[in-house]
Amino acid sequence: MTMASNETKQANNENVKKNRIQVSNTKKPLFFYVNLAKRYLQQHKEIELSALGMAITTVVTIAEILKNNGFVNEKSILTSTVGTKDVAKGRTVHKARIEIVLEKSDKFDSLMATTQQANANGKVEKKE
User: Fold this and answer.
1) 41 with 108: CB under 8 angstroms?
2) N or C: which end of the chain has fewer CB within 10 A?
3) pTM to 2 decimals?
């Protein structure tokens, strides 16, 4: 491969990753990812949620919340198995992987406007 095609491939990989959310079931709360997905959808037509192992249930839950509230339509679901190096055991461990591609629904912008307006009106100042 030439240097130019390597750079093109790397640029394409970076573009793909701009709308990908890699979910962990230990790092952030569920609604952090739901809100992050909404923010990504404001900038992109579609997003990709991905997770390994035990975080798969979290990704499915995020996708279902977004779908059930009318923000997205499900575009595709891909499952696979990936080998990861377990340094402690000194061997390769195979983990389940899921990628769910969601596209912005026709109602997305109006739902976001309603949500943002409700949040603005719902702010209550602290009384001391």
Assistant:
1) yes
2) C
3) 0.76
